[in-house]
Amino acid sequence: MEKNLRCILIDDEPKASANLENLLKSHPEIRIISVLNDASDAVETILDSKPDLLFLDIQIPGKTGFEIAKELHDAGDPPAIIFVTGFDRFAIEAIRHAAFDFLVKPVNPEELAQSIERLQNVPSKSVQLAQFTKLIERTLSKPKIKISNTGGFSLINPADIIYIQADWNYSELFFGVGKSELATMNIGSLEESLPVKYAIPLLNIRKLERFLE
């Protein structure tokens, strides 16, 4: 890649940002112009700086990477985005559905190189618009609840939950055959986060064990 791309890193984890900065030293075609550790002024900084590329974390306190992407899309002519995430199955499915590129933490040098290589084939503006539209529809157009997990948090559509199984301070959300998500939240906290209109079956293992004794 001959073109020098100006990029901004957005990640609330300093270690993750430092790791990515270090890996990008092997790619002189990428020039880091700013590193942001919170979402508060991210959109304003990006619009002022007009970078070519964003490495955008999804799990940022105060505002998700998807929300930042939507604001940039609404402002017009957003930069290329490579999402960076912990293992969040729902986020990854949404990103893949919209045909965006992504990296899973901790970032692998080979996967980073492949993502940068794919930047050579930048899609047309109409294709980029379609990608953003798909991403927004998949992540922000439906009501989402934030579920704390061992990797940070996930954004989940309550309508996808079939039932919730609770065990002390943990709860497992089931979405279908072979699909579940372990939340580091007790059943009470989960109930409070659910919209009133969603009546989801709740199974408390400890209460069930006491009942069967």
Salient structural properties:
213 residues; 11 strands; single chain; 5-stranded parallel sheet; 4-stranded mixed sheet; disordered C terminus; 8 helices; alpha/beta
Q: What class would the helix/strand composition place it in?
A: alpha/beta
Could you give a short account of the major beta sheet? 5 strands, parallel
- In one word, what is the shape? globular
Number of strands: 11
Order of helices and strands: EHEHEHEHEHHEEEEEHEH
- Helical amount among residues, as a percent range? 25-40%
Distance between the termini: 67 Å
Low-pLDDT parts are: 204-213
Q: Output the number of helix runs.
A: 8
Radius of gyration: 19 Å
Rounded mean pLDDT is: 81
How big a fraction of the residues is strand? 25-35%
Placed side by side, the strands forming the largest sheet appear as 2-1-3-4-5
Description:
- α2 packs across α3, α3 crosses α6 and α4 runs antiparallel to α6.
- The chain is an alpha/beta fold and 213 residues long.
- The longest helix has 15 residues.
- The strands form three sheets. Strands 2-1-3-4-5 form a five-stranded parallel beta sheet, with helices on both faces. Strands 10-9-8-11 form a four-stranded mixed beta sheet.
- The C terminus is likely disordered.
- The chain contains eight helices and eleven strands.
